[in-house]
Amino acid sequence: MSAVDLDDAISEQIRKSAKKLEDLLKSDVIYYHGQIHPFYFQKFRDFIESVKASSKRTESSLTIVLRTPGGSAETADRFVTVVRQHYRTVNFIVPDAAMSAGTIFCMSGDKIYMDYSSALGPIDPQVMVPDGSGYIPALGYLDKVDEITKKANLSPADVVFLKSLDLAKLALYEQARDLSIDLLKNWLVQYKFKDWNVHRTHGVGSPVTAEEKSQRAEEIAAALSNHKKWFSHGRALNISKLKELRLEIDDYSSDQKLRDAIRGYNDMLSAYTDRMGRQFHLHSCFKEVT
């Protein structure tokens, strides 16, 4: 079998796996691999429009298999606008990891599916470096400024650091932090908590108020953005850590049928994407974009 024939065979198997997962979830399914970057917005918008136009499903449901190191919260916001324009229900599957802006993106979902090996990450707004070559996490910078300004006695190195601060950049980092937290709070209340109508632990059976939903969302946002709690921007937060935050996750670890369908699609496609060296990849039953 030639390399071309082998790639065609792999692509067909991946397509069949995507279709199997769609039928099981009764939802359109797409795979997103790569940074959440403004450069990819038009590709993402056009891809979602194409998937919706090609789909014969009637459920108005989209499931995003997400694999990302993070990126721009502003771009995640624009992605949410796109998917909610075309679908009533949007769910996320995180078979591997969705970090930072990926975590923020997931919070816009009605459901988040993970298994015991999956991970989200602490939220941290990513700000483009001046030369446009990539992102840096803003909270680490802000935490350092906060740590130094609270010192009773500043060292010479601290003084040099404070004098070097770009106040416009500092304001940009603060705005990015506030936007990330605000998006997460609003999306949790609007989507994740929309069917949370009665208490299931404290005050079992009593109605959940809008104020209680907002308070719970604020607690989760504060915890996920607290780097002193997690110590690292890249810390992997598994299901047990997320449940400590009282964030409801749909755990498919023991659902053999669903787990096999997810891994059958994700693992083969991820391996193929990595082998081809693709930094960005969108896939569905109908088309793929790199």
CATH architecture: Alpha-Beta Complex
Low-pLDDT segments: none
The succession of helices and strands, N to C, reads: HEHEHEEHEEEEHHHHHHEHEE
**SS content category:** alpha/beta
Order of neighbouring strands in the sheet with most strands: 9-5-3-2-1-10-11
Number of strands: 11
Enter the CATH topology name: 2-enoyl-CoA Hydratase, Chain A, domain 1
What is the name of the CATH superfamily? 2-enoyl-CoA Hydratase, Chain A, domain 1
Which overall shape is indicated by the principal axes computed on the Cα atoms?
A: globular
Provide the gyration radius in Å: 21 Å
Residue share in helices?
40-55%
Summed over residues and divided by their number, the pLDDT gives a mean of 86
Strand content: 5-15%
Number of helical segments with 4 or more residues: 11
CATH class, named: Alpha Beta
Largest sheet, strands/sense/barrel: 7 strands, mixed
Task: Please tell me about this protein's structure.
The chain has 290 residues and is α/β, with parallel strands linked by helices. It has a single domain (3-289), classed as 2-enoyl-CoA Hydratase, Chain A, domain 1 (Alpha-Beta Complex). It is built from 11 helices and 11 strands. The protein has helices spanning 3-25, 41-54, 73-86, 101-106, 138-149, 156-163, 167-192, 210-224, 227-230, 239-244, 256-275, and strands spanning 28-33, 61-67, 89-94, 97-98, 111-114, 119-120, 126-128, 135-137, 250-251, 281-283, 288-289. The strands form 3 sheets. A 7-stranded mixed β-sheet has the order 9-5-3-2-1-10-11, with helices on both faces. It is globular. The two termini are 25 Å apart.
